[in-house]
Amino acid sequence: MLAASENNLIIDEVIFDEEALKAYVHHLKTHTVYYIGVFCDLAVMQERKILRRDRCIDLSNDQIDRVHQSVLNS
């Protein structure tokens, strides 16, 4: 694992459910970790995906309502 080798990591991941979040917490429990939640309007998210050109715009529509639910409800 890269973190175990004392590498500084940025993991850019969409975590949809509490189970996935708990897995990250478990595997990285011996490391200092900062979890960052990004909130924005759907239009802003779609514009950013268009500008990046390698993203699927339709994912924004699905992610906007689901992505923070398990964290906010915990």
Task: Tell me briefly what this model is.
This is Chloramphenicol phosphotransferase-like protein. The chain is mainly α and 74 residues long.
Explain what this protein looks like in three dimensions.
The chain has 4 helices and no strands. The protein has one domain. It is mostly helical. Helix content is 47%, strand content 0%. The mean pLDDT is 81. It is globular and about 40 Å long.
Provide keyphrases for this structure.
74 residues; mainly alpha; 4 helices; globular
Helicity, in percent? 40-55%
Report the total helices. Answer: 4
Overall pLDDT, averaged?
A: 81
Total count of strands = 0
Helix and strand run: HHHH
Specify Rg, calculated over alpha carbons: 14 Å
- The total domain count is 1
Portion of residues in beta strands equals under 5%
Question: Which structural class should the secondary elements be placed in?
Answer: mainly alpha
- Spans where pLDDT lies below 50 across 5 or more residues: none
Anisotropy-based shape: globular
Major β-sheet profile: none
> What is the end-to-end distance?
28 Å
GO molecular function: transferase activity
Protein name: Chloramphenicol phosphotransferase-like protein
Organism: Holospora obtusa F1
